[in-house]
Amino acid sequence: MSFLELCRKRQSVRRYREERVAREKIERCLEAARLAPSACNSQPWRFIIVDDPELKNQVASATFSRVVPFNRFTIKSPVIVVLVIEPGNISSRFGGLIKDRQFNLLDAGITAEHFCLQATQEGLGTCIIGWFDEKKIKDILDIPSGKRIGLLISLGYPGDRLREKDRKHMEEIRSYNSYTG
Ligand SMILES: Cc1cc2nc3c(=O)[nH]c(=O)nc-3n(C[C@H](O)[C@H](O)[C@H](O)COP(=O)(O)O)c2cc1C
Description:
Blueprint: H1 3-9, H2 23-34, E1 45-50, H3 53-61, E2 79-85, H4 90-99, H5 103-121, E3 125-129, H6 134-141, E4 148-156, H7 170-173
Antiparallel strand pairs: 1-2, 2-4, 3-4
Helix pairs in contact: 2-5
The chain binds flavin mononucleotide.
């Protein structure tokens, strides 16, 4: 698969087959995530792989409620990856402070996408999840209270067909040499 094909194939998967995911495959996704770039090579991340079915259900239950049900699909995903944001090294923290940029959040997004693209390559489906009860998940997984969870990623064999991408046209997002060029 070419890289562009891989990008087209990656989509948010919200329906999963029951099949379990071999840790060998998860390890390759983690290796792709580990190789991601980060500000000052700070690598401000830690991945908690939740593949114990009971624990996974507890984490999944913290991503939806009766009022906000749209993440209910996570109950069917065999694995949920919890991406904890670490503080980062001194250079990236100092640089971020001076330049008013949250480098560790940017870094977290990049590593998450590395993970998802490798998962696609492995024939797996993912969905990045930003809506969840952070406190509940921290309690379930013994994550220290001072830490932040950046994102969750659901992972499993896709039950979805490949969809058409819903994206802005190139003309809306691209200019050369100036904002309006
Ligand atoms: C930071 C972030 C948070 C997201 N949170 C959720 C979420 O809580 N629930 C969900 O179903 N999808 C979530 N998504 C998936 C987006 O809805 C999805 O990527 C977007 O609609 C584009 O569709 P595609 O991934 O299928 O190409 C999130 C994606 C990102 C990058």
